[in-house]
């Protein structure tokens, strides 16, 4: 009698499918918690609290994979899947352009942030590729950091597809003889079009136009002093927070008007 029942309709097969579905639902909740941790830059230990909250809400997440090590494993799997999606997009695109800008990490070390912009079937995508530390923010080190990161992700294929680079317009990036774009162009053995960021270009034009205006100089100095007054003094920030609290308002910390925050 058992041999006449199709495998897909057998009790054992249905039980196995139900078990797989239950495990899938549990892992879905756990992966969502891990994704929240990674996207919001939270410590891995917060993942345990999120899982405890799910249990308090009577969500079935099981009793395994509830450690910070599991969270790290899930985030690694999510990032690998996202990288595979990006690799497919780059593989199917006919050309790419690179967008890069300087930054500093939490230890105040120089780093270069790299994006890739491409188009597949008229659908434009801007993909975050990664951050690479540089020993010194000069043309040689920045170009090596960009090329190394792109080669690690896409091997040598990026050199055949690269047609342009978008930068902030600094001389270290757009210098004709030793700028980053020139060095990258030499690596690819073909012309690479340099694009000066329009926002930075407008900023430079605006500053050049009003640099001799006295009222702007005073206003700029005032805003900078207010920013520095709270930035380098925990006591002043604490007093500012107390003032907002007494007014029953959300605290707003002065930010830098110009330059790098």
UniProtKB/TrEMBL annotation:
Superkingdom of the organism of origin: Eukaryota
Name by which UniProt lists this protein: DUF4371 domain-containing protein
Source organism of the structure: Mytilus edulis
């Amino acid at each position: 009698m058992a041999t006449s029942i199709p495998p897909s309709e057998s009790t054992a097969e249905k039980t196995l499918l139900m078990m797989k579905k239950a495990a899938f639902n549990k892992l879905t909740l756990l992966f969502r918690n891990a994704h929240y941790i990674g996207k919001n830059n939270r410590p891995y230990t917060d993942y345990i609290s999120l899982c405890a909250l799910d249990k308090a809400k009577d969500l079935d997440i099981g009793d395994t994979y509830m450690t910070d090590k599991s969270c790290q494993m899930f985030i690694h799997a999510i990032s690998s899947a996202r990288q595979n999606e990006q690799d497919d997009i780059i593989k199917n695109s006919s050309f790419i352009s690179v967008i890069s800008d300087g930054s500093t990490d939490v230890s105040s070390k120089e780093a270069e942030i790299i994006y890739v912009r491409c188009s597949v079937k008229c659908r434009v995508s801007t993909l975050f590729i990664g951050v690479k530390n540089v020993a010194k923010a000069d043309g040689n080190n920045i170009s090596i950091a960009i090329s190394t990161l792109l080669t690690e992700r896409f091997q040598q294929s990026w050199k055949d597809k690269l047609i342009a680079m978008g930068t902030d317009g600094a001389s270290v990036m757009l210098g004709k003889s030793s700028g980053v774009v020139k060095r990258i162009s030499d690596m690819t053995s073909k012309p690479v079009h340099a694009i000066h960021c329009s926002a930075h270009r407008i900023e430079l034009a605006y500053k050049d136009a009003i640099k001799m205006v006295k009222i702007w100089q005073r206003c700029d100095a005032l805003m900078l002093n207010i920013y520095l007054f709270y930035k380098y003094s925990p006591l002043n920030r604490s007093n500012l927070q107390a003032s907002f609290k007494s007014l029953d308002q959300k605290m707003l910390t002065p930010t830098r008007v110009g330059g790098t925050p």
